[in-house]
């Protein structure tokens, strides 16, 4: 089976996909598998975007939701 390299993804599209992933509620790895993106490629995008001083990349979702603490007043 011949390997074909995928086309270059512009940084603006990388940022869009990173944000879509981080807002999906899925783990990075699960989202990447669902969208046919290598996890290593995804993390390279995150690293490059951070180095390019992108203002905000959401933190990863580690497969759980944080429940706010109850107000104890």
Q: What do you see in this structure?
A:
By secondary structure, this protein is mostly helical. The chain has a domain at 11-51. Helix content is 44%, strand content 0%. It contains three helices and no strands. It has helices spanning 11-22, 28-34, 39-51. Helix 1 crosses helix 3 (39-51). The model has no long low-confidence stretch (mean pLDDT 82).
Overall pLDDT confidence: 82
Distance between the termini: 65 Å
Q: Give the count of helical stretches.
A: 3
β-strand number: 0
**SSE class:** mainly alpha
Q: Could you give a short account of the major beta sheet?
A: none
Strand content: under 5%
Percent of residues in helical segments?
Answer: 40-55%
* Morphology: elongated
Return residue spans where pLDDT drops below 50 for at least 5 consecutive residues.
none
Radius of gyration over C-alpha positions, nearest whole angstrom: 15 Å
Secondary-structure topology with pairs:
Blueprint: H1 11-22, H2 28-34, H3 39-51
How would you sum up this structure in a few lines?
The chain is mainly alpha-helical. Helix content is 44%, strand content 0%. The chain has a domain at 11-51.
């Amino acid at each position: 089976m011949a390997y074909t390299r995928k086309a270059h993804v512009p940084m603006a599209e990388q940022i869009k996909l990173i944000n879509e992933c981080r807002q999906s509620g899925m783990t990075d790895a699960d989202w990447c598998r669902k969208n046919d993106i290598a996890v290593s490629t995804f993390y390279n995008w995150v690293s490059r975007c951070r180095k390019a001083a992108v203002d905000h990349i959401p933190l990863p979702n580690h497969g759980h939701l944080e429940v706010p603490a109850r107000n104890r007043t």
